[in-house]
Amino acid sequence: MGIGIVKQQTPEEEELAAKREELARLEAELADRELALASLKAELAAFEGLYLRRVGVLYAELDDWNARLAERRAEEVGTPEARAEAADARSQAQESHSTAHSDAAEVRPFAPSPELKSLYREAAKRVHPDTATDEKDRARRERLMKEVNAAYAAGDEDALRRILAGLDTSPDAVQGSGVGADLIRVLRQLKQVRDRIAAIERELAALNGSEIALLRRDVERAEQEGRDLLAEIEAAVHAKIEKARRSHEAMRTEVEKHGR
Residues 8, 11, 15, CA angle at the centre, nearest 5°? Predict the structure, then answer.
């Protein structure tokens, strides 16, 4: 019976194996952080859409009434200052209307399924640009990552499956090189992945500190207390609209009374 000879790994091979294990762990962590970032962006976009549909349109209406009031005052006073204020008010009203009726207002509630999250995590881990080996590979991965993010935001599980299936049959899936070159490549990939994780953490912090995120937390906190904060805001804006409308009506009546 022959005795098998176990090949001793070189120090370079041992280091390469250890770094590959570390890279695999970081790639999984990166996929999780990308998932968290994509989810937060989609959730905030959905909440912003809800806010614009419920409250944004009311603020746009209020700004329109305020612009009408400013324009009426400018007609009565006739000073350059009054005309400038009226122009600013009308510009604000137009901006509010554009925002309230923009594409952002059409974004609907985002509720990703566990399967969608799993597919995204796997796709992100396999195509992430920061695991690229060269500029050509990075460009290809950046294109694929955009497709992955778009499919996730749209809740399209089939699109994510098609992307993953394409990766399995791609010539780029075939890899191979020497130990020294592979070690350098893995070390560079490790740095890229660490840098991207740090960048994601900064972006998550910025998003969580944004006005729309803070408002969403206030709404969620109010829901826990049995209140509909958006409904409360709607009522307050409705009251301001009615006040502005009455002021405008009073000014119009006054002008007609004096024949101006």
Answer: 115
In a domain, 69, yes or no: yes
Inside any domain, residue 5 = no
| pLDDT tens, position by position, 81-118 | 999 999 999 999 999 999 998 888 788 788 899 999 99
Total number of domains in the chain: 1
Residue whose tokens read 């700004």: 63
What's the number of CA atoms in the CB half-sphere (13 Å) around residue 42? 19
Q: What is the CA radius of gyration of the chain?
A: 29
Question: Is residue 258 in a domain?
Answer: no
Listed in sequence order, the residues at least 6 apart from 95 whose beta carbon sits closer than 8 Å to its beta carbon are none
Q: How far apart are CA 204 and CA 83, in angstroms?
A: 44
Cα 98 vs. chain centroid, distance in angstroms? 20
Range of the domain at 49: 11-252
DSSP symbol at 170: S
Helix residue spans in 101-228 (DSSP H):
114-127, 135-153, 157-169, 179-208, 211-224
Quick one: tokens of 95? Answer: 């901006």
Does any domain span residue 4?
no
Q: How many C-beta neighbours within 10 Å does residue 79 have?
A: 11
Q: In the chain, what percentage of residues exceed pLDDT 90?
A: 59
Place of tokens 């070390």: 187
Is residue 117 within 8 A of residue 34, CB to CB? The reply is no
For residues 47, 51, 54, 55, the Cα torsion angle rounded to the nearest 10 degrees is: 170
- Would you tell me how many other CB atoms lie within 10 Å of the CB of residue 56? 22
